[in-house]
Amino acid sequence: MSRRRTTTEVEMGSDSFLDIIANIVGILIILIVIAAIRVSQAPVPTLNIEAAPEISSQQPKPEEELKTVSVPEVDPTPVHIELDEALIAQVEKLQTELTRLNEQTRDQSRQLNLLQADLEKASKENRSLNHQIEHLNQLRNRAELKRAELKEEQNKTQSRIDQLTRVLEEIEQQKSPTQELRHEVTPVSKQTSGKEIHFQIKNNQISVLPIEELIAEMKEEIPQNLNWLVKFNEYNGEVGPIRGFRMTYKVAREALSTLEQLQQGHGMMKVGVQRWELVQEELLLAETYETALEPNSSFQAALMQANSESTLTFWVYPDSFETFQKIKEVVHQNGFLVAARPIPFGAPIAGSPNGTHSASQ
After folding, report:
1. Structural domain includes residue 58
2. Are residues 229 and 335 located together in one domain of the fold?
3. Residue 9: per-residue pLDDT
4. Is the domain of 92 the same as that of 238?
5. Residues 216 and 103 in one domain
6. Do the beta carbons of residue 236 and residue 248 sit within 8 Å?
7. Which portions of the chain are predicted below pLDDT 50?
8. Claim to verify: residue 333 and residue 269 sit in the same structural domain
9. What pLDDT is recorded for position 265?
10. Would 69 be classed as within a structural domain?
11. Contact 205/288 with Cβ under 8 angstroms?
12. Burial of 327 (0-12, 13-18, 19+ CB in 10 A)
């Protein structure tokens, strides 16, 4: 629908026409005044009547009255007041022009009314068009936001596929080395319930995983994004780095149970962490087996924070099982519970509400 453009041509034409009318009326007034002046200055014929004789007190005889009283003669020629014919013609011409201009004024008034009606109609159409444009802009913004979310999910899925592909290639290329089998009595395992301290063993090096510290930062960051959660129901964030690790996470709104609605009211909102994932930085504090056993190592500092109910969870990559067995014997001798989580190459260290707890031995 094309937008109609409004101009000021009608207003300019109306003003010009009113100026013409005012000028013509002024001319007419001037001409009428001139005609009145000329008429007043025209000579007026007078009737000459001789003075009547005085009537004496004595009554004359009829014969004497006829002889003494004389009646003056009156000129029978009619009196004519001559007006300027050119002036009369000009006045008639101006009257004709005034009549024509009055008709033209009525025509232009009708045209002006039609134009005003068209202008009101165009204004209504313009307002309706603006509402439609605003609605389309809102739909476009929603579509762009949804497309960005889908693009992010696609990138994550592609990254996961690439990681799994690399893991598969490494497994296929690796040769099964000959290892010494040691027979040990498998201890009874139980699910962890106390404090859990996490370590990564990769490339035969041990790193302390700052999972608890990163989760604490995540809990502080979530309340700052409640407006986003109210609007979009979910939020993707990142905290860290701490000791060479960052944590990406995703939180979303969760439905309140009937009991929670009764206790907290319908206006409350429940937020839960859907997933978290550790991302390793290039600068990573990692220690060999020998360095980890030294008194001032990061591994020993982490053990100082544990108690008798704590569980030491080791995320072990395929190339570091031998180092894990060594460190496991050491921590068992010191009375700690140990949990192992084998993890393939390329797979991230992650957690979610649907995951499983570590099983300690």
Report:
1. no
2. yes
3. 47
4. no
5. no
6. yes
7. 1-3, 7-12, 46-60, 62-69, 71, 74, 78-82, 176-190, 357, 359-361
8. yes
9. 60
10. no
11. yes
12. buried
Q: Cα separations (Å) of 40 from 31, 81, 288?
A: 14, 10, 133
Distance CA 203, CA 320 (A): 6
- Cα(193)–Cα(109) distance, integer angstroms: 92
Q: How far is CA 274 from CA 161, 198, 316, 355, in A?
A: 20, 20, 24, 10
Fill in the DSSP letter of residue 295: T
**Secondary structure (DSSP) of 55-90:** PPSSPPPHHHHHHH--PPP---PPP-----HHHHHH
Residue 119 phi, psi (nearest 5)? -65, -40
Q: What's the pLDDT at 66?
A: 42
Q: Please list the residues that pair with 351 across neighbouring strands.
A: 276
Is residue 235 a part of any domain in this protein?
Answer: yes
Structural domain of residue 166, as residue ranges? 7-40+83-170
The two structure tokens encoding residue 48: 């000459």
Return d(Cα 209, Cα 199) in angstroms, integer.
Answer: 5
The pLDDT tens digits of the residues spanning 29-38 come to 888 888 877 7
